[in-house]
Amino acid sequence: MPYSEVAASFPGLLFRWLKIADELRTVIELFFGSLYNQDEFLHSKFLSLVQALEAYHRIRIERGHHPMADKTTFVASVLRQVADGDRERLAGALRSFSSPSTADRINDILAASAVTMSPLLGAGQRTFVQRVVRTRNQLMHRFDTRPEKVLEGNDLVVATWHLTVLLQSTLLSELGLTPERCLECCRRGWRFERLARLLAATQGDAGGDVANDPA
């Protein structure tokens, strides 16, 4: 974004950046670490971006909402049936039950950045989120026994581009930019351009090859 375009609002942008740099420190470190460390392995870059999105959701979205009442009631009822000696250990295991899933977190952030991401995902958002979550779980926990459902090669590169643009749009919105302005800024990046081209090629059954492109 050229300085000439933000000169009038630069003091406010700088103030907001300094504020979110503290509040979103982990998110920003993970994002910029993946963005500028060209020697980072692709799987590591992918996981850093997913973790950044999860951290952002916990800080900005999850904290603003109370857990669903039915989940909280269920957890409490289960703990009442457990012996005192096991209750604390089981409480830790059940804590995640009342928290949003990784898919929920990504979908929430995609919804907030719909103006930027819809032109890149089209009708494929559901499949994109499913494959990102499966890949994340496979890399972290070796949960998925269906390797064809896990992102690899070119598909993993493209998913990493999507996650990078999503985080870029999200951080721009934190600076107070409108959704339309976030889209305009993201469109200037090479990742957005190539993703839009790939979506158009897919819809036209022309295919696409990103084998020689950086992540």
What does this structure look like?
- The structure is a single chain.
- The protein has one domain.
- It has helices at residues 3-6, 10-23, 25-36, 42-61, 69-80, 84-94, 102-112, 114-121, 125-141, 153-174, 179-187, 190-203.
- The relative contact order is 0.12.
- Helix 4 (42-61) packs across helix 7, helix 7 crosses helix 9 and helix 8 (114-121) crosses helix 11.
- Helices cover 72% and strands 0% of the residues.
- It is mainly α and 215 residues long.
- The chain is built from 12 helices and no strands.
- The mean pLDDT is 86.
Major sheet = none
The average pLDDT value, as a whole number, equals: 86
Form type: globular
How many structural domains are formed by the residues?
1
Question: Pairing-aware structural class of the strands and helices?
Answer: mainly alpha
Order of helices and strands: HHHHHHHHHHHH
Short note summarizing the structure:
With 215 residues, the chain is mainly alpha-helical. The protein has helices at residues 3-6, 10-23, 25-36, 42-61, 69-80, 84-94, 102-112, 114-121, 125-141, 153-174, 179-187, 190-203.
